[in-house]
Amino acid sequence: MKIIVLGAGLVGAPMAIDLAKDKEFEVAIADINSKSFARLSEFGITTLQQDLSNPQTVRGLVSNYDMVVNAVPGFMGYQTLKAIIEAGKNVVDIAFFPEDPFELSALALQHDVIAIMDCGVAPGMMHILTGYVAHLLDETETSLTYVGGLPEIREYPYEYKAVFSPIDVIEEYTRPARYIENYKEITREALSDTELLNFAGIGTLESFNSDGIRSLGKTIKAANIKEKTLRYPGHVALVKALRETGFFSQEEVEVNGMKIKPMDLTAKLLFPMWELKKGERDLTVMKVIVEGTKDGKKLRYTYDLLDRYDEETQTHSMARTTGYTATVALRMIAYGLYTQRGLSVPEYIGNYPDCVEYMLSELAQRGVNYVETIEEIG
Fold first, then answer.
1. In whole angstroms, what is the distance from residue 204 CA to residue 136 CA?
2. pLDDT of residue 378 exceeding 90
């Protein structure tokens, strides 16, 4: 089976390596930046330097493969996924684009493909686990997720490194946060409602509203659904100052007779400080809490994840937790475990307990462990 990964960044490259370990798979990876291909040939992976911003190029490229993993940056994710579907290829997507994915539902059914989108850690596993528990419960009342990717070593001033595309990180800081409260959709500004929480093995972290519930607001009937991003304490104040001053703006300003976009300057100055360099260790922390009733009892399901940089394979934690979710999902399709045609948001996988069990088992084999706690609450 021929598989191509589109995008060879921090997550794309480890996904290709993981897939190449299966003898049944012949793996290729495409990216415009050939520097991203370092070491990949060691694993028998074919590397292709391609401009993936052109949908016509994408359609032609994927036509030579059986399955596709879409790992391009979010701003080009929607058009790339659309091109893959138009080519009639099954696909697992981790581009996390801002557009409404359900606009592609009819197209995916028309081309008779399986297209699983948002299949990372968050979005991704948080949705799969939420969907799974909602499937078990008679009534779901609350879904709450805290999640963050952080550097092991805290460095002044931001105490942060971008464990995925920095442009997508800025989206978390600027895009209004949607959540469900008392069955109604509420919109707040990003970085709002900060609170301090303690996490075992890490200590105190700061949480804030971000636009992370994605499709859950449409697919899960619950009174309250919220996702909050985690950072080390103090990060929110620094980023808010940059945002309010206008450093994230795409509107041109005049400087010494020249017009520039503040965001372009920010990218030049800030992103190098946020670059997660080779060998720098990161961690991923997530807590998914789902509450509801079953047979007259009020239950709380909690899933805890604390994953760290893998010293043996030199793979960053965010690449492991995000990428391996996608590669395991692709295997589910390849081996006929997941067969739902059309567009699938990840919580749909939660409707199939065998698939959830398979994903948790395969992730655990790769050292990504979700700890489940079930308790009866008053």
1. 32
2. no
- pLDDT tens digits, one per residue of 200-230: 999 999 999 999 999 999 999 999 999 999 9
Taking each helix axis as running N to C, give the angle between helix 125-136 and helix 353-365, from 0 to 180 degrees, rounded to the nearest 10.
140
Please, are residues 14 and 320 in contact by the beta-carbon 8 Å criterion?
yes
Task: Give per-residue pLDDT as tens, 99-139.
Answer: 999 999 999 999 999 999 999 999 999 999 999 999 999 99
Domain with CATH 3.40.50.720 in the chain: 2-122+318-369
Question: Domain 125-233+274-308 carries which CATH code?
Answer: 3.30.360.10
Q: Tell me the sheet residues that pair with 67.
A: 3, 90
Which residue from 109, 116, 127, 112 is spatially nearest to 91, judged by alpha carbons? Answer: 116
* pLDDT tops 80 at residue 165: no
Give bridge partners of residue 290 from the DSSP assignment: 143, 301
Peptide bond before residue 151 is cis, with ω within 30 degrees of 0:
no
Q: Are 149 and 166 in contact (CB under 8 A)?
A: no
Q: 337 is written with which tokens?
A: 């475990």
Residue 102 CA to residue 93 CA, distance in Å, equals: 14
Task: Report how far residue 107's alpha carbon sits from residue 124's, in angstroms, rounded to the nearest whole number.
Answer: 22
What is the mean pLDDT of the segment spanning 177-202?
Answer: 96
Phi-psi region of 254 (alpha: psi -120 to 50; beta: other; left: phi over 0): beta
Q: What's the chain's length in residues?
A: 378
Q: How many Cα neighbours within 13 Å face the side chain of 95?
A: 32
CA-based nearest residue to 274, from 120, 122, 170: 170
What pLDDT, on a 0 to 100 scale, did the predictor assign at position 98? 86
CATH number of 2-122+318-369: 3.40.50.720
Q: Where in the chain is the domain with CATH 3.30.360.10?
A: 125-233+274-308
